[in-house]
Amino acid sequence: MKALIYDRRENVIDWLRGVLVGPDFHITATATDPVILYNLLRGRQFDIAISGALEACEFLDVYGSIYWKKPPSLKKVCLAAFTSEATLDWALQLGFDDLVDGAQAHEDTRQQLIDLVRGERIPQTSHCVVEPPKDDSAHTITINLHDQIDREIVRLIARGHSDREIAQCVFLSPQTIRNRVSRLLDRSGARNRTHLAVLYVRGRVTDSSAHLDESA
């Protein structure tokens, strides 16, 4: 099985090299920036592509720009520092085929990827984070963002960034980011950050003129 790894962190790539050993996998290529990723996806055939969670939206942007009409059989996997039902929902809603827990044993990760490529694994998700509240009078579940900073905060949340990382990107304090996120959750009706990110990806969080996820 030919594997492509996309992550900006060399230690993550090295970790995956330790996971994808043996006769079942061959790491055909690694990429650390979107230009290299674009050229690799256009020029080679892979059975599976593994992207870090922080690069998830970037990976899908590049992938979608090439294969938006006729996608290949390539399996797309998101690698996260931890997994839960919510993060699995998030990854599947983005467009990945599965989510890998970076904290689990190498053997478990390797077998999970093998089963996925062979079609023997179908990730189950409750989709609980994307269902609107039963009482729509309490929340509209849609929010129009006119503030540029709020739009950037939602975009970065969907890319998996923490409040501290977002604060560094928009030059505000982490406490200010937490206050803004809390306000966004109240206004959107989202139950948590993951739900807000899913609404963003689904185009339910919009600015005044276009869906925010067009630039995700």
Strand order of the largest sheet: 2-1-3-4-5
> What helical percentage do the residues reach?
40-55%
**Cα end-to-end separation:** 30 Å
Rounded to an integer in angstroms, the radius of gyration calculated over CA atoms is 18 Å
In the predicted model, the low-confidence regions spanning at least 5 consecutive residues are 126-141, 207-216
Description:
This protein has 216 residues and is α/β, with parallel strands linked by helices. The chain folds into two domains: 2-117, Response regulator (Rossmann fold, 3-Layer(aba) Sandwich), CATH 3.40.50.2300; 143-215, Arc Repressor Mutant, subunit A. The protein is 45% helix and 15% strand. The protein has nine helices and seven strands; from the N terminus they run E-H-E-H-E-H-E-H-E-H-E-H-H-H-H-E. The strands form two sheets. It has a five-stranded parallel beta sheet, sandwiched between helices. Strands 6-7 form a two-stranded parallel ribbon. The longest helix has 15 residues, at 174-188. The protein starts with a strand and ends in a 9-residue tail after the last strand.
Q: Which properties best describe this structure?
A:
alpha/beta, 2 domains, two-stranded parallel ribbon, 9 helices, globular, disordered C terminus
